[in-house]
Prior knowledge:
five-stranded mixed β-sheet; 20% strand
Amino acid sequence: MKPTVRRAAATDTEELVRLRIVMLEDMHGEPAPPGEWSRHCAATLRRRLPVPDPDATLAAFVVDRPAGPGLAACAVGTIEEGLASPGNPGGLTGYIFNVATHEPYRRQGLSTACLDALLAWFEARAVPAVRLFASRDGLPMYERMGFRRETRTSMELVLPR
Length: 161
């Protein structure tokens, strides 16, 4: 049976933060205790999730737990506007983060369903490319969905220097 996916609202904030903790702990193999970072994350979600907003640049799609309150899975993404180029005349790039499924509900296609909805949201907004960082466990799903590993070098500078 295909899961029911819905667009998340600001009322889903606490559960989205909980699933972000699940994802971060899975990716890094160590606890990600709540703190200032999770309070900031919650504030950002509450501010940017209200729907319907046709100009929203952040969206989350979720599957509710089949029994009881809470979320079983989510996919969150944002649209960034950069400078246009011949290959990207609108200058838009999508970023996906916080793709997570609560452990008891894994391997049932819930993250894939959430991600499909998020990708449709990007497509409806004429976003030509979407990027993400994949965990080892998530890599096969992303590859099945058509994501390819980039060969370009990515660099980061942590500030302040």
